[in-house]
Amino acid sequence: MNIVLMGPPGAGKGTQAEVMARNLFVPHISTGDIFRANIKAGTELGRLANQYISKGDLVPDEVTMAMIKDRLAEEDCAKGFILDGLPRTIGQADALAEILAEQGKKLDFVVNIDVPIEKLIERLSGRRVCRNCSQTYHMVNNPPVEAGVCDECGGELYQRADDSEETIKNRLDVYLAQSAPLIEYYQDKGVLFSINGDQAINKVLTDVGRGLGQNW
Length: 216
Ligand code: ADP
Ligand code: AMP
Hints:
The chain is of the alpha/beta class. The chain has one domain (2-116, 165-211): Rossmann fold, CATH 3.40.50. It contains nine helices and eight strands. The strands form two sheets. The chain has a five-stranded parallel sheet with strand order 2-3-1-4-8, with helices on both faces. The chain has a three-stranded antiparallel sheet with strand order 6-5-7. Helix 1 crosses helix 9, helix 2 packs across helix 3 (44-53) and helix 6 packs across helix 7. The longest helix is centred in the last third of the chain and has 15 residues, at 165-179. The radius of gyration is 16 Å and the shape is globular. It binds adenosine-5'-diphosphate (ADP) and adenosine monophosphate. The site of adenosine monophosphate has 17 residues, from helix 2 and helix 3.
């Protein structure tokens, strides 16, 4: 199953994608995670991407699409994938369709996780991420068993630099201006369904599963 997960920053894409990927036996591909891994490793791509990520702006389409083209060509994507964080512009959506067509694939579902904008600041400012395995927590909504320590791997939890209040505001503006139009884009293609993301994590997961025809 080839799936795109959409929604504003903080909607819960990463949280849902982790479980969906395990249930569907397909890779969870987060463009944000790939960029952050490159920043951590000090690669050329990481240095370039960080100039945009640190301000909450989008990394240019050509850079992002070159990266994702390589990732989608990897063998583990043969049976499907969950794309989390891409596309974020109409240009990326068109480019993605071309890449998939070249590989003889298409998108089966685009899942839009809908959360009111005013809830997102609280979600993003309380987010903590594992430095080691990227597992995501929330200080209040989804805390780890032991404060500051990842339940999955024991790694150290940290706050993303772009989860500061000022950068969050720009990210939400960028979402509304550049990414929200994708809802209509995919609605017109007949592949999109929307889920109410303003519910408990497990309830969102059940609703996503129902839309995908999965009874998990
Ligand atoms: P995204 O990948 O869309 O940016 P995340 O999955 O990282 O979003 O979630 C953002 C923050 O909100 C995290 O701290 C996460 O633990 C929390 N969160 C995710 N889903 C929910 C939910 N349904 N209810 C409350 N908090 C949530
Ligand atoms: P995320 O982890 O999805 O919140 O993404 C973090 C940051 O990475 C974003 O604010 C962007 O700067 C960058 N990024 C992630 N995905 C994309 C994309 N598809 N296009 C451009 N920039 C992206």
